[in-house]
Request: fold
Amino acid sequence: MAARGTLLPWAPVFLSVGIGAYFAARHEPGPLLLVVVFLAFVLSLSVALRGAERWRIPATAGALILGGVLVAAVRAHMVGAPVLPFRYYGAVEGRIVDIDRSFSDQPRLTLDRVVLDNVAPARTPGQVRIALHDMRGFVPEPGMMVQVTAHLTPPDGPTEPGGFDFQRLAWFSGIGAVGYARTPAVVLDPPEGGLALMAFRLRISLSRAIEAAVPGQPGAFAAALLTGDRSNLDAHTVSDLRGANLSHMIAISGLHMGMITGFVFALCRYGLALIAPLALRLNTKKVAAVLALLAATFYMILAGPSVSTRRAYIMAAVMLLAILADRRAISLRSVAIAALICLGLEPESLVEPGFQMSFGATLALIVGFENWHLVQQRLPRVARPLAMTVASSVVAGLATAPISAAHFNRIAEYGLISNLLAVPVMGIVVMPAGVVAAGLGIFGLAAPAVWAMNEGCTFILAVAGWVAGMTGSLLPVPAPPRIFLPLFGLAGVTMLIAGALPLRALGAGGVALALGVWTLAERPVLLISSDAGLVGVMTPQGRVLSKPKGAGFIATNWLKADGDAVDQPAAFARPGLSGAKGDLSGAVAGQTLRVFFGKGAGERASDACDNGALVVLSEPWQGPEDLPECRIFDPVKLSRTGALAFYPADNGLRAVSAYEVAGDRLWNRVHLKPSRPRAVAKAPDAAPDAPRPDPQAGDDPQAGDDLQTGATNG
Reply:
């Protein structure tokens, strides 16, 4: 099993098994269990270091697996912070530490140093994220202290059982509440000085300078490429980039870090080679590696502390340090070291698409190009760069397409075309021009580089719009079973790094098995959101939804998971639910379904309970809880279960709850406490009839997109 003559390439695989076991557990490991795991880890480690030779490899593997469980558990407890346990409406004070855009394309602030009216500091979240629906007279600045009257809720659970767990993401991001504001924010104090937010201020300053020099969406796109600031990219541009499989360009990743460090490395090495006295006395390769490492460090600090940025920096740093140590910069060993560092620092990244796609693509490229020199010898010299570009895109695309499709339920059919056209322009024109413009800007000589950057970004966006506009540019696919990604990942890694042919064949068989398992995916015949605000019934024409608008994030995710390309209004217009607004009826697996929402839903539902009906209402049920005549699903009951999915069963319908699947974990315990919604706190200047907070009225509590979940394939 010691592939390539060493166990090192397998080390992150075994560590990942332990981390994956921690996140897959239905219950949070208690202190006693963690002590047992720690003692077993110590025993395995001692055998690996001092035991008999034949036991060292199994003991090392066991120690890494047990260590993965421990590092994930320790990390989960270390990042723990208060989560708002109720809905809140009132004044929110805090310091701006991030600026981006929400799912509904609204400007969004992340605040720390949070103060909430009538909420004790011990129960106040460390950070909150608020979408602003009114920006009149307000220009956010990094470090600015602001106050805003906002609706806040705890981060919501999965939109359906087994779906993307936003609560887990928020927990590890330190976000304890999310919400929206319909009134402008008020500045309490100007941006503070100091080093704490220096990188954030520099990023925003450079972003605004780029957007001033390159107006419109090309400037916003250039700012996203070079600084990671996506706050001024509009929804249409982001949609085009997704449709063309180019959204990875606006998430700082290995692609960006590699281009920046590669350009600086080449510029320094060849520049020093032109200076004979230095070229004869210095190891220009190592000098260039040091300067490239400094450039990578600066770029990482500038682009911000996102998971993908840190991961890309670690990979680049390991490879540059390998050059300094006279080792191969790109090898299975260097990738394994980078993966171990990433998983050790942030074990939660294992379950994020960015980590899976980045390392999957890197491994595939290393293995795929082991014998590239034999291929390129048979090609004309002028055709080799194009062949290399095409081969790289094909290899990386094959490795990451199943992972991307599993997470985002879509395949960009023409993504190869757009990447072949756009990525070279990004690497040859836009990124170098950005570096040159930054260096020459202090001398007032940046105009040519800015022009090149503008032309390059305009071309990339034109490609994105053209490809996204093609018929069938996005092929929807249904969500796979939960076992798919672990099985595909383990089998794929085995196929790529195993030295023995039988093991590689076993890995290839596992990949085929995983893809076969995907074809057995079963979608629920009925879905109910966690607040009873949306119901979806599967019909022969596809899923019909109970509302044409509202709960847009949930509706979009349900339809995507079905592999359905229609939008929410089209899904609402399908046959299957009928009746007046707020009082719908239908049938699911032979059972009557009644759906009541809006004011007075509880009263209107009072006589709907008969003949085993399923009754869903958006207000608390007013009658007795235990009724043999029907099954009641109201916000109070759903607060204990989360979203519900129903599947056909011998005795009717089988219900599966989101919290049943997610289990009792640190990040969702606030939702496991059964209670009716708490009365909200009013802001000092709020009107007496301030509305009850409704997370669907503005930004959904989960309002994020592929970028917020870490999606990148570079």
Residues 3-78 form one domain. The first helix runs from residue 11 to 24. The radius of gyration is 27 Å.
